[in-house]
Amino acid sequence: MQSGGAGGDVDRALTSIRARADHLRHTVARLEHNLAWNPASTWPELLSQYMVISKQLENMNEEIPDLVQHFACVPRMSTPNPADIPLLLRTREDPEMEEEDRQLMVDKPRAKNTEALQKLVMAHNDAVESLEETFNEMSDGLLKAIRVNKYVVKSKPQSTQTQQFKYIESGTYE
């Protein structure tokens, strides 16, 4: 039972695509397993796994012919509850949610008048300016201390036994 040339090519292409899809499914499952059992994965590890998945998808895309775009895919599993279909296809929010939103908008106090908003803006600006002044004073003090060599780092001399005894006696290395 040998297939014809065109039929054999289609069978080989489908087999190859199925194999690649299975490999991709396995890779994604492995990533999900790693994330579930090792949530502290590092960013480079996750990025490398993502790159593998991305490359596998790219390879599958190259192998799938352009004609496949014109076919409809039928899922193997039907929706568990046919009554859910209208809910899934709905574009508007649930009527109860829309009513709650309307009630929230009605109950919401109207925007404050401009004078109250101006007072809030002025209070915010005053707080920011006082923080800026405090920061400038602290940084100026630190710069002055650095200029007068208050924060000079003294290097520790090579340790010898006599210097250690001097340090123990005087508390300094000099």
TrEMBL record:
GO cellular component: a single term: mediator complex
Protein localization: Nucleus
Gene Ontology terms for molecular function: transcription coregulator activity
Chain ranges passing through the membrane: none
Pfam family, one: Med8
Protein keywords: Activator, Nucleus, Transcription, Transcription regulation
GO biological process, one term: regulation of transcription by RNA polymerase II
UniProt family annotation: Belongs to the Mediator complex subunit 8 family.
Record PANTHER family: MEDIATOR OF RNA POLYMERASE II TRANSCRIPTION SUBUNIT 8
Protein name: Mediator of RNA polymerase II transcription subunit 8
